Amino acid sequence: NNPPWPAYRGYHEYSFAHATMSARLPTILGKAIEDTTRTLNEQSDEEKVVDLVACIERMAELMTDLSGNHKLRPVIDDDEADVALWNKEIAKYFQGKDFMNAPWLFAEAYKYRRLHECFSTSKFWKEYDVFYRQKCDTFSRSSEAVFELSMRFAEPFKIDSSLSAAEKLEAERLMFLELTQVCLWGNSTDLSLLINMTEEQIKALQSTGGDHLAATEKNILGNDLGRLWESVKEVRSKTGGRIDFVLDNAGFELYCDCVYADFLLQSGLATQIRFHGKRFAWFVSDVTKKDWNWLLNTMVYGQLFPNATDVELESLRRLGQRWKQYEKEGKWVYEQHPFWCTGYTFWDLHSEAPDLFLHLSRSDLVFFKGDLNHRKLTYDCAAPASTPFDIAIGPMASSAGAPKVVSLRTIKSDVVVGLGSEGDETAERLDKEEPGWKISGKYAVVLLSEGRPG
Ligand code: F6P
Ligand code: MG
């Protein structure tokens, strides 16, 4: 049940796997230790201090294992719902493997699980998120794009009633295409790649204007936007149409996802949206329940943007209030299945998390956001760029009950599929003309698989 192409591994020096495993992950862990030390220095209670010092010591051990390329040991049983899944996978496939020769996807996820273990085995710091400060801070520095969207979308979405039915549908289609791109490019602000960004850099990544979007559509190398619109229209014709988002990053990307989900609901294209987040800190910027709550509450009650006008702040508050109301009414539901924080790819979702697969198979459309989810969908292997998306995602397209799946992903790592029959040539040309095109986040894919009825 595996694809015929080899998975990327840390020792593949030509791939981003190598830079990540040898340099990026130790840097990220170093920053996590700095954050925890800062928290330690703010504590007064002796028991808590001693407990946190032990967490820092465990992080130092993890640093030794990672930078010394030690073998992967089982995860300590910390009563988390995912331990059994982790240790089963290690025992079955990765016994004796180390950080560099295990598949990159697995080794990288394992590092985040080990980081969580440093805290989950403590008494007072089980829920501590070493990336929380950074996530909140980046959102607070995204004011320009945040208010651009809130000023436009705080007012509930309305289509001019004097338009003909065909004109209304066209207006809706254009809005759908624009907001799908807002949601897509919201994925470029990923903190694991952009440590220490300036406000100017954040602004450049987040510009959401119409002209900008027209220009960026040509950077969507595999583009199923047209088919996606057709699928979404079908969801509307059902009563109780449900759309799911397998989330990626907190802060600005989550905010864009919510703007998009709000539109899908208001336009009647869906009647319920389910959001899937992580149970603990994951790949630096991924959404946890705390990040979700923080965003909604900061929009309504926060004082993050001292330079904003009253009108801007009011627009953000209204948007936040509406979203909180959706949550109360059950129109928006936040979930966190343990499978999302394991090392398995989604080729194993149906067999390792059958309850989750069944749950997703009841959705009318499942959006997978971001690079990591794309790597997991495609097994993170060296498939040719011309490989059709539904072949690349294997059982997530071919198993009975596979839902319609869309990947909205800015390209930040090696695996690239779904570029069409000329895709191999496109990839070769970009390799020559723009080395680094696979990690810059400048390019993207919007890929759809129709799924298979159960
Ligand atoms: O460390 C590499 C990686 O997993 C890449 O997939 C990507 O560069 C980043 O981390 C996560 O990106 P995203 O937040 O879009 O999943
Ligand atoms: Mg992420």
Which features does this protein show?
7-stranded mixed beta sheet, globular, 19 helices, 454 residues, binds 6-O-phosphono-beta-D-fructofuranose, binds magnesium ion, Rossmann fold, alpha/beta, Transcription Elongation Factor S-II, Chain A, single chain
Describe the main β-sheet briefly.
7 strands, mixed
Q: Could you give the count of β-strands?
A: 7
Please write the CATH class name of the largest domain: Alpha Beta
Question: Stretches where pLDDT falls below 50 for ≥5 residues?
Answer: none
Helical fraction equals: 40-55%
User: If you compute it from the alpha carbons, what radius of gyration comes out, rounded to the nearest whole angstrom?
Assistant: 22 Å
Number of helices: 19
Average pLDDT level: 94
What is the CATH H-level superfamily of the largest domain?
Answer: Uncharacterised protein PF01937, DUF89, domain 3
Number of domains: 2
Strand content: 5-15%
CATH topology of the largest domain: Rossmann fold
Q: What separation lies between the terminal Cα atoms?
A: 19 Å
Instruction: List bound small molecules.
Output: 6-O-phosphono-beta-D-fructofuranose, magnesium ion
GO biological process, one term: DNA damage response
Keywords: Hydrolase, Manganese, Metal-binding
Family: Belongs to the damage-control phosphatase family. Sugar phosphate phosphatase III subfamily.
Cofactor: Mn(2+); Ni(2+)
Q: How would you concisely characterize the structure shown here?
A:
The chain is α/β, with parallel strands linked by helices. The chain is built from 19 helices and seven strands.
